[in-house]
Amino acid sequence: MVKEIIIDGKPLEEILGDMNFDPNVARIVHALKSAYAKAEIHNSVLQNDNRLLRAKVDRLQEQSIRDPLTGLYNRGHFDKKLEEEIMRSYRTDDSYVGLMLFDIDFFKSVNDTAGHQAGDKVLKDVSTEVMSLITNGLIEVSGLLEGRTRRLDTICRYGGEEIGIVMPATLKDSSLFMLEQIFWDKAEQIRKYIEWNVRIPYNASNLDERMEKLPGYKTGREITVSIGLAVYEPDRMLIKEAVNTEAESAKLIGMADQALYHAKNSGRNRVMSYSDIQRNKTDPEDDQVIS
Q1: Where along the chain do the CATH 3.30.70.270 domains lie?
Q2: CB 273 within 8 A of CB 248
Q3: Poorest-confidence range of 70-74, 79-83, 98-102, 148-152?
């Protein structure tokens, strides 16, 4: 059934009738209404095709910034978001950027002893737990202080067995030390949760015996992480146009990486902040870090 055509509030038949068309007006009206209906169908098909194409493009864009193994954002997206948050910290008063770097303890030994499939599962399990804790609001990392409009933390696979979390935060009527302490407390909650909930998978009948040979594991099953934490404080004397976000991003990564290095060389399975290192001025032993 063809749809009635309305022009300026009047049906087309009435408009044509008012114009004293010949007796063939009914045939003309029917032909016009049929053409109109076909055009509507064609337009509907085009709109649906556009929606499908947009959805496909969105999926491809999302896949391009995701790590295929863990489902976390990849390193390219991590670098982009970190630079964006550093620039935003210069545009907004009282804004800072926190960064956590996680490293799975003895990960190389897990791969060598239990196999790479077991290592992949450990990495996926740790990633899933961290993502679940933060995205489900069980542990909020950024947006910690009153008066903060929260932006989501960016959780990425930084490289190998390392995970990074970019944490924008606004500090009002408080101290930078308090902000660092809040970040540290949240990192400690994540560390404990992983220790309590992630295990090396049972993928072989003699796995228990092999796991007992791993250094640092009493039962041979617990997975632990070391976490390095750093907070970026923008130089308020600089104008934002003069900020080299790539260099400042590298500076923040270096701070968090140094804290992570100290955590691993101080016994692993712990959280250390860059500020703690600076305050204590205690250098770790120069022993090689075992992944």
Answers
A1: 75-280
A2: no
A3: 148-152
